[in-house]
Fold:
Amino acid sequence: NAGVTQTPKFRILKIGQSMTLQCTQDMNHNYMYWYRQDPGMGLKLIYYSVGAGITDKGEVPNGYNVSRSTTEDFPLRLELAAPSQTSVYFCASSYSTSDETQYFGPGTRLLVL
Amino acid sequence: GNSVTQMEGPVTLSEEAFLTINCTYTATGYPSLFWYVQYPGEGLQLLLKATKADDKGSNKGFEATYRKETTSFHLEKGSVQVSDSAVYFCALSNYGGATNKLIFGTGTLLAVQP
Structure:
């Protein structure tokens, strides 16, 4: 099993550009999450999904959108990139609420200039 | 609301030294508590967890005990190695709606010198 995979590993965007961060998991997990990690700030939850077709906002959703058309994929969309979105983005998944362990991808480093 | 506070780093130790990284939490109800580790250039990995008061989580020589009376979950290891150099995150589960969301502390960088 590959676990949770994310692409790209690194990207530079200009202000106002858009992009999609890809996340795929092959563990048949129902729950998926997007976090951003800023230096010295820990991880903040952006969006999460409890299954295909169901998504909800986390702590810091502004400027982002998500979709969940399949169990495996949970892409994160930035429509109008801003310097404040410079961060490292992590996707994670978990099997159920009874198993709270989350499994993380390797991250995408995004720089907005 | 629920929150996690952990000691600021960096923590610099010599190989075979004793490690303690402090973590305290604020929560309503009875959350589960976690330590995650992030090695350089990688995503977070679960190190250990405890789901109720007085439980001890352990893995790879690391231990942490869920102390409800002091709202703490301090991470300890008796003898650190250079390979333990990483960022350590304390977290609690925050059940809200249909899923358990994790609330993370800010992370503590551990650097172990040979």
Remarks:
- Chain B has a mean pLDDT of 91.
- DSSP finds no helices and twelve strands in chain B.
